[in-house]
Amino acid sequence: MPNKSPKILVVGDLMIDHYLWGDANRISPEAPVQVIDIDRETTLLGGAGNVVNNLVALGCVVYVTSVVGDDKVAHELESMLKDIGANTFLVEENERKTSKKSRIIAAHSQVVRYDKESKEDITKLSSNKILNKFKSLCDEVDIVLLSDYGKGVLTISLTKEIIKIANDKNKKVLVDPIGDDYSKYNGAYLLTPNKKEAEIASGIKIKDDNSLVEVLKKLKDVANLDISLITLSEDGIAIYDEKLVMRPTVAREVYDVTGAGDTVIASLGYYLACGNDIVTSLEFANLAAGVVVGKLGSATATIDEIEHYRSSINKGSIESHIKSFDELKIQVQRLKKLGKKIVFTNGCFDILHRGHVSYLDVAKSYGDVLILGLNSDASVKALKGESRPINNEEDRGFVLSALESVDFVCVFSDDTPYELIKMVEPDILVKGGDYEGKVVVGSDIAKEVKLVQFIDGKSTTKTIAKIQSSKC
Fold first, then answer.
1. Which residues span the domain enclosing 383?
2. Helix spans in 386-459 (H)
3. Which of 103, 208, 260, 409 is 20 to 30 A away from residue 423, measured at CA?
4. Which of 13, 262, 350, 407 is catalytic?
5. What is the CATH number of the domain that holds 244?
6. 444 vs 252 pLDDT, higher one
7. pTM
8. Residue 250 pLDDT more than 90?
């Protein structure tokens, strides 16, 4: 995780998310509706404000500018922004109603929502004030985020001017878009529409990977984007940059998707501003989204929460890492679709010792995923003699699967793992240093072979000999 505090400017529609919490234990005698007994109220920053909140939670220095009404909600909104440390510049318009969305929640479920807001375009005077402030801030920030909720702040002319100025200063612009005409965002670095929004904007139904690519390409052309991106709910996030890249969702439990799109654009902006590439930033955004959808209401994700979540996601049951040939084949296909670099090694690993652990740790360092082909009991017996193995294949596989460096274990019964390697087609094939000058089985399949030196004096044979001598 990066340890940086990038400066990020947010322009868009600010609002307050208002929650009324209570219990529903009776039906109204006046109409067939629930009666909610309200016991508490909470207010949160919504819309572009939720983007700001997410950025602050990630440790960013945040600047935000928008247009609000001259009303009580605007003053509350400004106070909330200042309370979290955002550098705020708000333009007030008479007769405009600052957006406030009120939700009634009973038994952790949203019963109804009612809104008070203005949706008409801001005036030319307000637009000019925003633009002048943007010009003065653009040199100071690392990246620009536009949060368009269609409430009138990001007019067509203002949006185009902002993107043009940012591009002239080599600042990336990320946009959470709205509507059906994305030419409004011409020249942005990327947009973050969800599947439904992308279908509406492109006029194409997403049914499979081919239609997904078609939509991504069309949006990229329409808005002249560097990167074309679509969020796909439980299927994760897809981008198109020369080729299709998908990152599946990592959410375990989904309680509320409110504000998840705000988290995606905020976390993408943060990670890109820290100097990371788009694919790495995409993975980070997916983790952040996985955190917030597990919370109720518009939420944020801190670096610590994301790091903890990443660790918890990677910790499956030990048995889940042990795969049959057919099960592993499915995993391999998934990993290759995700563009993961696969490392393969094999061996007996009878009595696990330091030499084994060190060897596997080095092997894993060569790629993203380490697959271990484990000799079956019959195979070990044929190689080592009738007295071996000391531990059966089930026990050996279980212990190996518990190692942090090992992602998958697959037992094979053939004399060599050639058929397993043929199925995996690894990027890297790893063997011990004792294979120097020898032919490595599967070297004709893997893209590269690497030899890892063993630790002197560490082997299963020597461990057995030491145990036996201690009994004498």
1. 318-471
2. 393-401, 418-424
3. 208
4. 262
5. 3.40.1190.20
6. 444
7. 0.66
8. no
In sign, the C-alpha dihedral spanning 75, 77, 83, 89 is negative
* 308 and 340 co-located in one domain: no
| Structural domain total, the chain | 2
Which residues, other chains included, contact 4 with Cβ-Cβ below 8 Å and sequence gap of 6+? 59, 273, 274
Q: How many CA atoms lie within 13 A of 20 on its CB side?
A: 14
Structural tokens at position 339: 């563009």
Q: What is the CATH number of the domain that holds 427?
A: 3.40.50.620
In this structure, the answer to whether residues 21 and 134 fall within a common structural domain is yes
DSSP character at residue 94: T
Exposure string of 82-119, with b = 16+ CB inside 10 Å and e = fewer, is eebebbbbbbbbeebbbbbbbbbbbeeeeeeeeeebbe
118-176 per-position pLDDT tens digit = 999 999 999 999 999 999 999 999 999 999 999 999 999 999 999 999 999 999 999 99
Q: Report yes or no on 1 lying in a domain.
A: no
Q: Which helix (DSSP H) or strand (DSSP E) does residue 354 occupy? A: helix 354-364
Q: Which of 246, 279, 314 is the last residue of a domain?
A: 314
| Whole-Å CA distances, 88 to 10, 79, 83, 84, 169 | 10, 10, 11, 11, 22
CB 313, CB 33: distance < 8 Å: no
Q: Which of 243, 300, 235 is nearest to 266 (CA)?
A: 300
Asked, as a colleague might, if the bond just before 2 is cis with ω within 30 of 0, I would say no
Reply yes or no on whether 115 is catalytic: no
Calculate the CA dihedral of residues 41, 45, 50, 52 and round it to 10 degrees: -140
Residue 2 lies in a domain: no
Q: Are residues 105 and 218 in the same domain?
A: yes
CA distances from 434 to 77, 274, 345, 446, 452 (A): 68, 43, 14, 19, 9
User: Is there a single domain that holds both residue 156 and residue 294?
Assistant: yes
pLDDT confidence bin for 299, thresholds 50/70/90: confident
Sheet of 14-27, strand order: 34-47, 14-27, 99-106, 109-116
Q: Per the domain annotation, does 233 fall within a domain? A: yes
Q: Can you give the pLDDT at residue 253?
A: 47
Q: Is 116 left (phi over 0), alpha (psi -120 to 50) or beta?
A: beta
Q: Are residues 176 and 143 in the same domain?
A: yes
- Looking at the structure, tell me whether residues 36 and 143 fall in a common domain: yes
**Structural domain ending residue among the three candidates 314, 341, 356:** 314
Predicted pLDDT at 456 = 65
In a domain, 378, yes or no: yes
